[in-house]
Amino acid sequence: MYIKKIELKNFRNYEDFSMDFDKKVNLIVGENAQGKTNLIEAIYLSSIGRSFRTNRDSDMIKFDDDRAYVKVYAQKEVIDTKVEITINGKSKKSIKKDGSLVRKTSELIDNIIIVIFSPEDLKIVKDEPEKRRKFIDRELAQIKPAYYDCLSNYKKILLQRNTYLKEDYVDNKVLSVWDSQLVRYGSDLMKMRKKFIDDINVFSGNIHSSITNGKEKLTLKYVPNIDYVESSEEQRKIFEESLQKSYDNDIKLRTTTKGPHKDDMSFFVNGINARNFGSQGQQRTCALSLKLAELDFIKEETGETGILLLDDVMSELDKERRKYLVDALHNNQIFITATDIDKELTDSYPEAKIINIEKGKIKIV
Known about the structure:
Elements: E1 2-11, E2 14-20, E3 25-29, H1 36-48, E4 67-75, E5 80-88, E6 94-97, E7 100-101, E8 114-117, H2 129-141, H3 145-165, H4 172-211, E9 218-223, H5 232-245, H6 247-253, E10 264-269, E11 272-273, H7 274-277, H8 280-302, E12 307-311, H9 319-328, E13 334-338, H10 343-348, E14 353-358, E15 361-362
Parallel strand pairs: 3-13, 3-14, 8-12, 12-13
Antiparallel strand pairs: 1-2, 1-4, 4-5, 5-6, 6-7, 9-10, 10-11, 14-15
Helix pairs in contact: 3-4, 4-5, 4-8
């Protein structure tokens, strides 16, 4: 899978932009605040219809304009695909896939599959659990429509329950009305998350071993907020009992304290928790292994080679990790943003397409 072309109108600082891409390597070069990450954001938008930078669609509309437009052409294993996104500041965005209107975001899932790797991702090991949950949700949601729908339903019910918990008077019987649905969707989320972490654990472990020349063994573990069991029926029972036991605490804190919205995952290097006791180098190697493992996971699950966006991440990695990253990515289309052309990169990718960006336009050099 690779992206062939993008067209932008009034997107961020791009007024009218069109670019054909190389099917393997594209180096996007420019000074800070010229539009490199904006271009990466537009590419990513074609994957799940959402930005990785903001929750407000209106942020992506060029200043003093009221509508932005993104069109991405991609080549999959056997067919072409086209995604068109119109963002209107006064109404919901409109998404079309191959000319047909997408009525639910889940209809866009598993079409153009993209992995984003930014400096923030290097902090995934040491950051708070929310960052790791977002990683799990983002990667599963873009290849499994069932997960996306389940997560959306869970969040909707959770919001309703939490809103009620903020009332002056809360009735346990009313809370139980939301509990049954929370248990249903939450238990399914837990099962899919556990399988995902088990699967990606194998890929990331192999990659981490290669990066460290076999000196370190990486193990990922699912850390659920409530006890996890394989039986779906038993899982729902455990979840329901956990919610009931936490009624008093939930009412006191005015929020739902039990459920997969509090899940986490742990990284162990040679059996030692990397978040608490790992060096910065080990934590970054864990993050790199995890990101590359996503591509292996995507290939196994979908049969497609995922597209990798490297947004200003090369400068954050040492020479050894950069070399491993470069060597590992010859089968995927990659987009790399940088403030200047790195000889190490051009030597590694002599046929790469170099795209110079200045103030949202192609700079002729």
